[in-house]
Amino acid sequence: MFTNGLIMKAIAINEFGGPDKLQLMDLPVPEPQTGEILIKIKAAGVNPVDWKIRKGLLQGRLPHEFPLVPGWDAAGIVAKVGNGVQHFAERDEVYAYCRKAIIKDGTYAEYVVVPENNAAFKPSKMSFSEAGVVPLSALTACQSLFSEGQLKAGESVMIHAAAGGVGTYAVQLARNAGACVLGTAGLENHAYLLELGVSEPIDYVNADFRDIVRKKHPQGVDVVFDCVGGNVFQKSVDILKQGGRLVSIIEPEGVKQLQARGINAHYVFVTPSRRQLSALTEMIEAGQLKAFISRSFPLKEAAEAQRLSETGHTRGKIVLIV
Q1: I need a surface site. Which of 32, 117, 142, 222 has the fewest CB within 10 A?
Q2: CB neighbours of 231 closer than 8 A, spacing ≥ 6?
Q3: Percentages (nearest 5) of helix, strand, coil residues in the chain
Q4: Ramachandran quadrant class, 189 (left: phi over 0; alpha: psi -120 to 50; beta: rest)
Q5: What is the pLDDT of residues 211-263, one digit of tens each?
Q6: 298 in a structural domain
Q7: Is residue 189 part of a domain?
Q8: Range of 92's domain?
Q9: What kind and span of H or E run contains 105?
């Protein structure tokens, strides 16, 4: 990536490991190339993929280079546009899903460059902090439920980890689509699920979710959206209606095994889409989709933010303020 000689503050790692590997560094401000925009970041969402990358869990799947700046979510202001950019101009307020082919220049930084097709105009009803936690999780939910899950009005959907980052958006999107929404969470999060739009909150801690679902839906549910993996993923097959669809964002190999058994299963690794992100903006502006932030941290405390994310028990989203 060409640079303009300017320096920015960023959180980065020079090797895989624990949260202590995250260091505040001075790195070059990237220069936008043809079709790209430079975003001055105001807020960056923290996602589980960030600490999985930091620990080296995805190094076999995702090409990477050090120093590696984590982060795929951002909201900010367009600071510069490259040649050929059609949709944005300097000073536009935007948000973006910022994953790239090589994992290196992420959003735990003051600036990030992305293709313009990764970005959309920031919803005017949202602060930068709220907008900064939308792209990755909301696009994941959208692509899982509709692109792969083919969820339709009047159908039933089980959303596992419904109070989490992706689950929070999945519940709202499914509700808006006219589906009957079931969601698993601890009892302490059931009021939150009802607020989001879950029709049937299910306590996964003190009971087998399959028994609860079978009582009310003896034929099974039309779609299962798995954000947990492991035993939850395996057990979810038992609550699928004949011809139902199972979508996972955790179990690529498990999905292949289910497909070999003739089960309609899909694995989703979210891809950038300006069109879909713009559609989400319209829903936000219409009051149909909201962001829920559990904790905010300054950029320099990214390690603490990742520690919290790694517990796996965060309601809604975590955001870094840049």
Answers
A1: 117
A2: none
A3: 30, 35, 35
A4: alpha
A5: 999 999 999 999 999 999 999 999 999 999 999 999 999 999 999 999 999 99
A6: yes
A7: yes
A8: 3-134+291-321
A9: strand 103-105
